[in-house]
Amino acid sequence: MAQGAAHHTGFCRDCLTGQAEGLRRCRACGSPRLVYHPELYDLTIAHIDCDAFYASVEKRDNPELVDKPVIIGGGKRGVVSTACYIARINGVRSAMPMFKALEACPDAVVIRPNMEKYVTVGRQVRALMQELTPLVQPLSIDEAFLDLSGTERLHHDPPARILAKLARRIEREIGISISVGLSYCKFLAKVASDLQKPRGFSVIGQAEAVGFLAPRPVTTIWGVGKAFAGTLEKDGIRTIGQLQTMEESDLMRRYGTMGQRLWRLARGIDDRTVHPNDPAKSVSAETTFFDDISRFEDLVPILRQLSEKVSTRVKRQGVAGHTVVLKLKTADFKSRTRNRRLEDPTQLADRIFRTGLNLLERETDGTKFRLLGIGVTDLTDPARADPPDLVDQQATRRAAAEAAMDKLRDKFGKQAVETGYTFGTRNRD
Questions:
Q1: In the annotation, is 143 catalytic?
Q2: Which of 102, 261, 304, 396 lies 20 to 30 Å from 268 when distance is taken between CA atoms?
Q3: Which residues form the signal peptide (predicted)?
Q4: How far is CA 426 from the centre of its chain?
């Protein structure tokens, strides 16, 4: 433990001076950004999230935007990729249609995404994380889990202070801010990082976990989206505290494997470890046709085949995609890219295909295409992927059928079983 840490219950995030409990401002620099917690120097699992990442990078590069509402996204028919906090105060949210965002915040400055620039900045942030610990697990371009167990001897400081130093260094050297969540497990570290954005530093200890979670809505739990939350509400379950009173067997009987996840996470039980990896920014598959194709019905089986390839790849890589991307190239070599963000991330060929199919329908207007591709991006932890759809029972049955097909293909080869969409068409393209 750092010298002096044992004699204080907290520290100042701006100057790192140790603070006795009860102070409201730093005794050294006067800053109000103090951190106190009984378990502050014992916790080692962190989640780091860059604040309004794309918008923050654009404001860094153009100081004239600092005090203005900024939206990163497409044209009036596009959607919001992200928005700065000034725009969010006016009601702008990620994935909101652009025309609605501009109705809510008509003075906003709209900037088209510059992914190459954002990727470069994301890699700079990740490099600083990896200087602290080799156990860095990226979830996307702008967020990651860190396991700082055993690093105190190396850095001569406990993890909490190491993370505060990292936040200061990112602001000083890269010019953007981060929010930090510190806890004993990944689930609560992620929850903590969302509590005080922007420039947040929140701590959730093991002793307080159950009480902290009890009043919170069930949507706090990974995998509980709007549809599943609606099902739980019909069953009279709105808060995590209600889940805490229920038996594991009862929840599993009602909701299957998701019921077990509800029971465990409601009690702050999450034994997943931080796995260092360097995932791709996206996973995709595409094909160029021998002859241009314009008919929707001819494109459908090809889209299905490509969706199955993408699904296989994300499952093997241990990731899930939050956004489905359709790629088309016309006969005169003009590219079209369309995307849709899902409510929950997915690994399923069925969801990738059906989402891509909806996007494809809007593009098949007689135009001849020479290339078709499908992929997923915004890669994330697969633990959050494909919760049971208790509203659409057919989707649940298709997911079960896909799992059965995966087992057959693993055992007998990828062409051992086919869907009706692709039967007899494997070599068509």
A1: yes
A2: 396
A3: none
A4: 34
What is the residue whose two structure tokens read 């510059």?
A: 114
In the chain, what is the straight-line distance between the N-terminal and C-terminal CA atoms, in Å? 63
pLDDT the model gives residue 380: 85
- b/e map of 346-362 (b: 16 or more CB within 10 Å)? bbbbbbbbbbbbebbee
The reply to whether 61 sits in an annotated binding site is no
Q: How many CB atoms lie within 10 A of CB 409?
A: 16
Helices 257-266 and 248-255, axial angle in degrees (round to 10): 140
Model confidence over 17-61: pLDDT tens digits?
Answer: 998 888 899 999 999 999 999 999 999 999 999 999 999 999 999
The residue whose two tokens read 């981060």 is 178
CATH code for the domain defined by 53-115: 3.40.1170.60
Q: Of 3.30.1490.100, 3.10.20.540, 3.40.50.2300, 3.40.50.150, which CATH number belongs to 282-412?
A: 3.30.1490.100
Residue type, 361: E
Residue with tokens 């068409």: 425
274 in Cβ contact with 45 (< 8 Å): yes
φ/ψ bin of 285: left (φ > 0), alpha (ψ from -120 to 50), beta (otherwise): beta
Answer yes or no: is 147 a known binding residue: no
Topology of the domain covering 210-266: DNA polymerase; domain 1 (1.10.150)
* Contact predicate 41/32, CB 8 Å: no
Q: Please pick, among 143, 308, 402, 418, the residue that the annotation labels catalytic.
A: 143
pLDDT in tens, 308-333: 999 988 888 888 999 999 999 998 88
CB neighbours of residue 411 within 10 Å? 8
Question: Coil, strand or helix: which one is 271?
Answer: coil
